Structure formats: structure tokens, C-alpha cells
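User: Please fill in residues for this 207-position structure.
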């Protein structure tokens, strides 16, 4: 089965076409390009190039975050649109599972803004610690509970000096999709807190 996977939870949009056949795992296409929180057009160009090079997919898999609010919404919407238009299965997985950490275990940490970090513990492609929202001090305390785990992050984080820079890999996401649940509806992004929405200004009363 040819799976088209994408993850847009970080500042890098990752797109991959992977052939899963028996025990073989062949990456047919990979594109990792920067994209901004305010501009997710790199996702759509990457998808266009993937389909142009590899043909139509037989399934789609998307990352759910946590991460960029706008990036996740754009990536999930694109995956849902492809799956619906082609009438093919859609799968989804939390993005930290696709980080290139060792199977022996690692921490995934990110900036959730507003004075909080998100953190997850991962081993053998599964969560030891589900993604949760903590203060920087609480995050450091949790990390020290298993100091043998390396720490992966898509961006620098104050208070952590030994981070390994990394972003989710769509090819890993495609391979992990074999054990993911089939999505019958549009997947929900993994938000750990409500998105910040600027309230509209109150209209001034007319004289």
C-alpha cells in the first residue's frame, strides 16, 4: 500500500510517500521544507510534488500535534480533503511519535507558549508519558525522573541546554500508520490548551 503522510506541527512541513508491502518499507518521496505559522502554503506545494512524482496514494496519514495551531489545522484539512476526494483511508497519529528518537526511549518537548511547555515520553513507538502541559520547572522535574532519555525539540527552550534538534518525520508517521485507528471523520488536532483568540473590539456606542 502506498501511503502519503504529512506533518505540519512544527516549523518544518514534512511530507513523505511510503510503500508498505509485506515486511518492506520503501520511502518513495520525502520533502521537508520550512513553513511559517502564518503561511502553510509549503504543505500544498509539497503534496503536489509528491503526487506528481509518485502518483495517487492508497491511504493518507496526518500528524495531530501538539504544535502550531494554524499549521495543524492546514495539514489535517489537506489530509481530510485528499482522503475524501480519492475515497481512500485516512489515519492520524500524535506527531511526537514520528520524532527520530531511539527505540530505547526519549523525551519530546516543545514550547506551548504562555509560559508553558508540552512534554511527552516515548519508547518503542508508544507513549510512556502522554503529551501534557507543564511549566518549565515542572517539565525539568519530569525530565530528571528519567535522565537517561535524550531530549528532542523542534526549537530551543530556555532552561534546557542539551536538546537534540528534531522535527516529526512524515515517513515514520506513514510506517506507524499500520497500528493507527482509521478516521471516519476529520481528526481533531491534539491541542493541550484552548487556542489564543483575540477578542473583537467592542463597538463604540453611537451618539
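Assistant: Residues filled in for all 207 positions:
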Amino acid at each position: 500500500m502506498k501511503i502519503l503522510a504529512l506533518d505540519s506541527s512544527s516549523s518544518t512541513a514534512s511530507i513523505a510517500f511510503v510503500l508498505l508491502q509485506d515486511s518492506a518499507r520503501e520511502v518513495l518521496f520525502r520533502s521537508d521544507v520550512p513553513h511559517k505559522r502564518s503561511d502553510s502554503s509549503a504543505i500544498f506545494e509539497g503534496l503536489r510534488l509528491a503526487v506528481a512524482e509518485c502518483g495517487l496514494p492508497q491511504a493518507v496519514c496526518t500528524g495531530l500535534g501538539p504544535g502550531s495551531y494554524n499549521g495543524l489545522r492546514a495539514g489535517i484539512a489537506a489530509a481530510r480533503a485528499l482522503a475524501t476526494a480519492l475515497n481512500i483511508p485516512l489515519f492520524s497519529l500524535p506527531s511526537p511519535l514520528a520524532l527520530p528518537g531511539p527505540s530505547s526511549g526519549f523525551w519530546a518537548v516543545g514550547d506551548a507558549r504562555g509560559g508553558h511547555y508540552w512534554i511527552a515520553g516515548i519508547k518503542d513507538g508508544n507513549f510512556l508519558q502522554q503529551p501534557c502541559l507543564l511549566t518549565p520547572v515542572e517539565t525539568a522535574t519530569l525530565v530528571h525522573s528519567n535522565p537517561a532519555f535524550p531530549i528532542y525539540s523542534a526549537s530551543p527552550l530556555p532552561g534546557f541546554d542539551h536538546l537534540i534538534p528534531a522535527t516529526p518525520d512524515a515517513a515514520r508517521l506513514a510506517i506507524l500508520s499500520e497500528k493507527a485507528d482509521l478516521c471516519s471523520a476529520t481528526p481533531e488536532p491534539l491541542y493541550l490548551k484552548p487556542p489564543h483568540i483575540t477578542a473583537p473590539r467592542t463597538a463604540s456606542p453611537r451618539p
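For context: The chain has four helices and ten strands.
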